[in-house]
Amino acid sequence: MFPSAFSYVAPNTLDETYELLEQYGDDAKVLAGGQSLLPMMKLRLAAPGMLVDIGQVPHLATQHESPDALRIGALTRHAILDSKQFDRYPLLSQTAPWIADPLVRNRGTMGGSLAHADPAADWGATLLALKASVQLASHERQRLVALHDFFVDVYTTALEPQELLTEIIVPAPLADSLVFGHYFKLERKVGDFAVVGVAVTASLTDDGTVSEAGIGLAAMGSIPLAAKKAAALLIGHRLTPELIKEVAQVAAQEGDPQSDRRGSEEYKRSMVRVYVQRGLAQIHQEWQVANQSIA
Ligand SMILES: Cc1cc2nc3c(=O)[nH]c(=O)nc-3n(C[C@H](O)[C@H](O)[C@H](O)COP(=O)(O)OP(=O)(O)OC[C@H]3O[C@@H](n4cnc5c(N)ncnc54)[C@H](O)[C@@H]3O)c2cc1C
Fold it and tell me: What is the value of pTM for the model shown?
């Protein structure tokens, strides 16, 4: 299928980008990696009159790590996060290889994935587990929005038509803890979107107490979700088999999955339980190994 007619412009600066988005308003769409927008246009599910290609805009594809946070430029490709290790953010490089296939990963961007807001997308779950925020910018204003307020509904976010998502900000884990993270994805075939996706991260102190934790869920509702009740149960406790089991059961009850051709609601909840349990057990094991090598 062919898309309907559109114009194309590739600004060289952020200011130019903001001007174009303001000028064309609802008729404009930002083009990042094109891995979701172009298929939508070909299927005539989107018909923007103007494509604003941000590929030439400088500084949008950078990653900057400071003591407080990791700032990821919106145009950072999935493949970069697959190949680059950020030691304090192991969940990122655990998630990236699960996204689609190498072709999509080489073009698709983190900002594009979040702005597209597919409830089954992988970055949403992971970045919610990491309590990330997004920087939204226009000529008028800059605003920092917590990711859990950014996702509004299926394919719908808090972005205004004249706004650009410029950065994803992931807060640093606590300095006195070891941080662990795992991403699990059930897919019908390699490269497919998730039947369910589960991101689990936890920071553990010297004596094994959980100081921070996050659990993110993909394809468990109309938006990517944080299993907040389950994660809260972990704080201040050691990872015993009983606690892990309880947390996994609570996580499986969060979200509102629909039965569809990928699986029934019960099956999806059950897989969340299995993955949370597996993730936390793995984290406990890794902490034991790390602690032995320190001692
Ligand atoms: C075959 C295939 C398989 C896939 N499998 C998976 C998968 O398993 N898991 C997964 O998570 N994803 C998957 N995807 C989606 C892929 O990750 C896309 O890269 C991603 O959803 C969109 O990123 P993009 O950079 O390509 O954005 P684009 O397609 O360029 O844009 C997507 C939307 O976001 C808007 N947008 C983009 N960037 C910005 C910005 N900086 N500010 C404001 N708005 C912006 C665009 O206007 C558009 O509405 C798959 C895609 C394909 C084609």
Answer: 0.97
Ligand 1 binding residues, C-beta < 6 A: 29-37, 39, 74, 99-100, 104, 108-109, 111-113, 115-116, 121-123, 159, 164-165, 191, 193
Query: For residue 74, which atom of ligand 1 is closest to its CA?
Result: 41
What is 63-171's CATH number, 2.40.40.10, 3.30.465.10, 3.30.565.10, 3.50.50.60? 3.30.465.10
Q: What is the spatial distance between Cα 95 and Cα 92, in angstroms, rounded to a whole number?
A: 5
Which residues make Cβ contacts (< 8 Å) with residue 225, sequence separation at least 6?
A: 125, 128, 216, 217, 254, 255
pLDDT in tens, 149-183: 999 999 999 999 999 999 999 999 998 899 999 99
Superfamily of domain 178-294: CO dehydrogenase flavoprotein, C-terminal domain (3.30.390.50)
Closest CA to 99 of 37, 166, 192: 192
Q: Cα(186) to centroid of ligand 1, in Å?
A: 20
